[in-house]
Design brief:
This protein is α/β, with parallel strands linked by helices. The chain has 10 helices and 6 strands. The chain has a 6-stranded mixed β-sheet with strand order 1-6-5-3-4-2, with helices on one face. Strand 5 and strand 6 form a beta hairpin. Helix 1 packs parallel to helix 3 and helix 4 packs parallel to helix 7. The radius of gyration is 19 Å and the shape is globular. The protein starts with 30 loop residues before the first strand and ends with a helix.
């Protein structure tokens, strides 16, 4: 979780290698809320892919000419709806939703990029009617969220089948394994292996970005963007990381999208300069309504960043 950068006990620790085996649970552990007496099992030594309460009043979220492979848009995803988003619940909200009443709920914060990952997957699979959003204010959480829903007190979390589970990367796989809709994981073993590498790198990528924001980010983060540019050259059957749109693109999308805005607005730097593959990838991502609907307000994003990292 990127709010704890540089603090003792922060969560950028060694990332346990994910086991991505097609047609089997590829991430074997999920975080289950102990508030209901369920056992909790989590990846040890892995970055927590969730948003806690932000510190310091943080308000972030919270081509090579190859013809791109067809991707799904709102016009051809069965069940895709452009929904009216629910209001954010804060400490003044005294009662939780009727828990475990058969409704599947995704608890998010509109400002949290980790929650945005799962929100994108939910939209892409056309699960808006099946999975209801509950928006939480990270800076002023309802007391019932920790006490009755998710003891970890972070987002995202998913209420499903009488349990609450968390961690954004785990939840991406959970949606893939337990819900209908367009598949987000390939059958090709070589793509499965590369997906494992890229998902593991998400932690290094995000840590690099946030570590150097107070230094010389344009200089110090170049290698991380170059890594992505090289990764996007791996397959020739499309403009996404695995050729076709996948959970890898979802894992990176919220962060790259935010970093692009921050670098442009604060340092007047284009992260796609000299990186045509990355630029083409961003363009393709912005054609996917399931992604664009989850984007955080640009002005608020930049303002929050300046307050957090530059003291402005």
């Amino acid at each position: 979780m990127w709010y704890s950068i540089g603090q003792k006990g922060g969560d950028f620790t060694t990332f346990k290698k994910l086991k991505l085996i097609h047609h089997s649970p590829r991430w074997s552990a999920v975080t289950v809320s102990p508030a209901f007496g369920k056992p909790r099992s989590a990846h040890r030594g892995r970055v927590r892919s969730q948003c806690p309460r932000p510190s310091a009043n943080l308000g972030w979220p919270t081509c090579s000419g190859v013809r791109p492979q067809h991707h799904w848009t709102s016009e051809n995803i069965p069940g895709f709806v452009k929904e009216d988003l629910p209001p954010t619940l804060d400490s003044t909200s005294l009662e939780p939703p009727p828990l475990f009443d058969g409704t599947t709920r995704l608890y998010i914060a509109y400002v949290c990029p980790f929650a945005q990952r799962v929100w994108i997957a939910r939209n892409y699979k056309g699960l808006q009617d099946e999975i209801k959003l509950v928006a939480i204010d990270l800076g002023s959480k309802p007391t019932w969220y920790k006490e009755k829903v998710y003891r970890e007190n972070k987002v995202p979390s998913l209420e499903h089948n009488n349990k609450v589970i968390g961690e954004s990367l785990d939840l991406l796989q959970y949606l893939e394994d337990n819900f209908e809709g367009p598949k987000l994981f390939p059958n090709d073993p070589s793509k499965q292996q590369f997906a494992e590498e890229l998902l593991e790198y998400t932690n290094t990528f995000n840590k690099t970005m946030f570590t150097y924001f107070k230094g010389d980010p344009v200089k110090e983060t170049g290698s991380a963007f170059d890594y992505l540019e090289t990764a996007l050259n791996k397959f020739e059957d499309g403009l996404f990381f695995l050729g076709q749109f996948s959970l890898v693109d979802i894992a990176y999308g919220p962060f790259i999208g935010s970093f692009q805005l921050i670098f442009h607005d604060v340092w007047k730097y284009d992260i796609t300069a000299g990186r045509p593959k990355l630029g083409a990838w961003i363009e393709e991502m912005n054609k996917i309504d399931a992604y664009t609907q989850t984007k955080y307000d640009r002005a608020k994003l930049v303002e929050s960043y300046k307050k957090r990292f530059l003291g402005q």
